Amino acid sequence: MKLKVLDGRITINADDLAPLLDLTNAEFRERMRDGRIATLSESGEGEDAGRLRVTFQDERWKVRLICARDGTVLQRLRLPVGRG
Predict the structure, then answer these.
(1) DSSP state of 60
(2) Phi (first) and psi of residue 34, to 5 degrees
(3) What DSSP string runs through 5-59?
(4) The whole model's pTM is what?
């Protein structure tokens, strides 16, 4: 899995991410469009300089990707979103 980073804009193939959120590609695209999937990107500092952390979260799952400078995913974390 690899992210594309161009001019500060991050893109990822829906085929890669949708299954991690238990969604079809169509569901993933629809939820991204209407804002039901929150995203956060952070640039590493210090010993993590050059790395990127990107988080995608819907009502059920949080998926965090740690990526190298070129967008290659180095680590993937998938957590259920707490309820209550």
Answers:
(1) S
(2) -95, 5
(3) EETTEEE--HHHHGGGGT--HHHHHHHHHTT-SEEEEEE--GGGTT-EEEEEE-S
(4) 0.86
Instruction: Dump pLDDT digits (tens) for 26-65.
Output: 999 999 999 999 999 999 999 989 899 999 999 999 999 9
Find the helix or strand (DSSP H, E) in which 75 lies. Answer: strand 73-80
Q: Judge contact between 27 and 33, C-beta under 8 A.
A: no
Q: What is the CA radius of gyration of the chain?
A: 13
> Which residues constitute the domain of residue 76?
4-80
Q: How far apart are CA 63 and CA 3, in angstroms?
A: 14
Contact 3, 52 (CB under 8 A): yes
Q: Give bridge partners of residue 66 from the DSSP assignment.
A: 53, 75
Domains identified in the chain, total number: 1
